[in-house]
Design a protein that fits this description.
rod-shaped; alpha/beta
Length: about 200
């Protein structure tokens, strides 16, 4: 059966890995089984990294993070099964007893399931697109930094040597040539500096 799961907090994950949900995932972890997609809302990357590490042995489980800085008032697990059933489980944690309890809060069928499934798919695909955009931005930033540095590095010696030659040459034509070299090299240096400044502002 096809399963999509949304965990709205790290507590929801802690319950999931210690209870019958874990057994369910383990039973459906065969490589030929349909992919189980998990959307998890984490406050920071450390929480998400620990979750990813936990699910690494599960061959057909895919995990994505919906980053959130707000701790939810209720800890929930939402499960969409075969696109025709949505189940909402409420998770409670007794701090004194250090024990989780879980109860079925609601269960829906019919057209409303399609709404929740489309919402899940849209969030999932948006995260994918954001990851691609982030990688593209990082690549673009690295390219601009490297290009601007590689452009500026050879320009500075050209300007320096040209000015040194200018102080040693008296031929008017040669001086004109050197002035042209220095003038255009200065323009290139300014362009490289502008590229660096823009990339710093964008960063």
């Amino acid at each position: 059966q096809k399963v999509d799961i949304f965990l709205n907090s790290y507590y929801s994950f802690l319950f999931l890995k210690k209870n019958s949900f874990y057994d369910f995932l383990k039973a459906n972890t065969d490589a030929n089984s349909p992919a189980i997609r998990l959307l998890i809302s984490c406050k920071d990357s450390d929480q998400y990294d620990s979750i990813v590490d936990f699910f690494k042995p599960f061959k057909n489980v895919q995990v994505k993070n919906v980053l959130s800085s707000v701790e939810p008032t209720e800890h929930m697990i939402t499960i969409i099964t075969n696109q025709n059933l949505v189940s909402f489980f409420k998770i409670d944690y007794d701090i004194d007893k250090r024990m989780f309890t879980c109860k079925l809060s609601d269960s829906l069928t019919g057209d409303i399931v399609t709404f929740f499934y489309i919402l899940f798919v849209n969030i999932w695909s948006t995260i994918d697109k954001n990851i691609i955009l982030e990688k593209r931005n990082i690549f673009q930033q690295d390219f601009v930094d490297i290009a601007s540095h590689q452009l500026r590095n050879p320009i500075l010696p050209i300007i320096g040597f040209s000015k040194t030659l200018k102080s040693k040459i008296e031929d008017p034509d040669m001086l004109d040539y050197l002035n042209i070299i220095i003038k255009n090299a200065e323009k290139l240096k300014n362009i490289a500096n502008d590229i660096l400044d823009i990339s710093k502002i964008e960063a």
